[in-house]
Amino acid sequence: MMNNTIKEIQNLLFSGKNIAVSAHTSPDGDAIGASCALAMAINETGGNAKVFIEKYSDTFDVIPVNNVVEHSIADFKPDIYVAVDCGDIQRLGEFTEIYNNTPVRINIDHHKSNTYFGMYNYVDDKSSSSSEIIYLIIRDLFNKFSNPDDIAACIYSGIVFDTGGFRHTSTKPQTLLFASELIKYNFNFNKIYNTIFNTRKYGEAKAMGKALCNMENSSNGRVVYSYLLEGDIAQCKTTSDGLSEIVNYLKGISGCEAAVFVYEKSKGVFKVSMRSDDKVDVALIAVKFGGGGHAKAAGCTIENQDVETILKNIICEIEKSLD
Ligand SMILES: [Mn+2]
Is the pLDDT of residue 145 over 90? Predict the structure, then answer.
């Protein structure tokens, strides 16, 4: 599977076309930051770009997306469609069909499991984030932008989000080099960091409490797991976005080499998130169950099984990787 060159991707993107940009369903900081920075850069260079993504958590309202985001594609007829931060085409959700029907299709991503589904592809699984790749693509154009500050803020937000605030090993010298260039622009990086990592909603905290009550371990604490059912989540008045930190918290328990958190997204539909150390490649396990992701952070969706069976099967696979 071969990448196109950055130059080829630039030539397509900055040619004054109508361009739709979408990221994955349940957009996160990287999905929002990368897609909006790209669309704003295209609009600054004579093109006409819009971002089509699902409604997202208001935590991310701290990311200055201006007016490029739309939630429905209506009568926009793109010449080019760019998928950002999507490991496979289904991650585009409701926008998959229109992506397939657009004459020129680009895929920009950093997931190891990427299927190279675009006509043009730029995938770098060594990159901390899709936002870091977008910066690589638009970096030389920054001095031409009339409003570089918001574009810089979007990219910075995406990098900060996907690196967990520069904590994950995906943080490379280039990641910090780019971050150091970005904070020269005028935006409040401290506020972005604190809003993304240091604030939580009441219901989110409540859900964390319930998940910690349900917590169990196996292999003498090397695997830590928990779950929440649909009713628990409803009681806490939180959404799936409000559960995203639980698996990281479980992983932080001393002696834990792999953490699993399962929640019931809708009746009988279970989302599984996994985090691990070097020993366990959770991406490989996620792929076995129809999902994907990174070696140390991956997930999948499992239907028509009860939560006990799901946990048993996943933990059995994890334990095979522990010697
Ligand atoms: Mn990402």
Answer: yes
